[in-house]
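Recap from last week: sequence in, structure out.
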Amino acid sequence: MIPTLPPEPDLPPPASAMDGASEHLLAGETVEMTLTAQLRPYLSRSALTVGLTSLLALPFILFFHNPNIWFLIPVVAVVDLFLFDNLDDLRQQRGRTWVLTNLRLLQIDTRPEPAFAALDRSALARVRRLGWWKLFVVGDNAGIIEIAYAPEIAALRAALLNDLQPGDIAQSPTARSQGRKP
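Predicted C-alpha cells:
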C-alpha cells in the first residue's frame, strides 16, 4: 500500500492589492497599474538620511582627535532616525492601495478607516515627485493624492506625465525649475 497525503484544506485565496478596488471601478474602466507601500523604499530613504547626517557630523568628529568620539556616529544615526524618520507615515501608507486605470487614479484606504479618493486622468494639474519615495498628484479641483513608498513610483509618474497637456507641464513650477519647454 502506498501512503497518500491527506487532502489540502480549503484555504481562502491570498489577499491581493486589488481587494476592494473592483467595487470602485466604473463601467469600461480597466486597471493599468496597482501600487502598495513597501518597506524597501522606506528603508532606503532612512539609510540615505542617516548617511547624510553622519556625513555632516563627520567634520565635528574629526575635529576632536579622540578615537572614542567615533562612537558618536551610531548615536547620531539613532537620533537621526527618531528625529527625521516617521515610522507612523509608513504605517499609514501601508494601509493604502493606489490603482491607476485608463480613466482615473484611485486611492483606497483600508486602515484605520475605509476611505476612497479619485482623480480623473483628464483633469490632472500637476505631478510632483519628492525624492524617489513620494509622489503628489494634484487635480484641477485641487484634490491631492499622495503616493509614498511604492517601488513603481517612477513608472506611475511617467504614465501620469503622458496624460498632462504640454501647456500644463510648462506651467508647473517643477518644469520651470528644470528648464523644460512645452
